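**Archive record**
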Amino acid sequence: MMVFAAITPSQQPKTTVERSASTDSANTATTLDTLTTNDQLMLNAFRSIHSAEMTYQAMTGEYTVLSTLGQAGLIDPQLASASRYGYLFIVSFYGGTAQMMPGFDVRARPRFPVTTRTLSFYMDQSCDIRGGYHATGGFGDIHDPVIEPCGTSQLTENERLSIASMREIYNAEITYQSTIGAGQFGTLAQLYNANLVTTGFAASPYYRDYRVNALIIIPEPAGFSFTVVPLNYGRSGRRSFYIDQTGVLRGADKNGLPANENDPPIL
């Protein structure tokens, strides 16, 4: 069943259909170097929504609307209200079937009278952001040209922040072992409750489109191994990561499977 964000009926787009060149579909491509500051803010907003949707889907098994993402603390309250940067947003989602994976799409249109330079935007779970100039200021759709592909920049940022969180957890483990752990390493919950690390993977098993695969505590001799993997391999990240009591962080493209102690170190 298709579910829509709560906006007025006059703002709800019609079902997407094939359009001819003479209709209102956008037919002018743009590039990143021609985007305005507000356009860039919209790209950031769409990336935030995509990250939130992927995290929510990993936790619950389904996608959802902006208001629910806001209630879950995954996006900011203004974006959750479906109005941001002078645009109206709408999210639709559908559950999976035997023939089709679950999915969602995000559309945005200007709130104010449009000019020839006002973009409308569209994105679905594939992560490519599309945009085009719609004469009537309509919502962006899947027929618009891609203006920012789901490229390496987002993947690189997800990987960078995941690595940083894993290093923080390693430092917390060393502190825990030498103090309240009495020679033993701790679980993520124990590290968090001891206020040794309260962000990243310690705060949630889902962080920056990555998820915790396992934290294994070895009692004797004392040791641990911690692994994280991409939530959506190839789109949210490519490399999987591993760290243990040695402090050496390792990673490799494992096609979504966990990394291990035999993978190359990451400096």
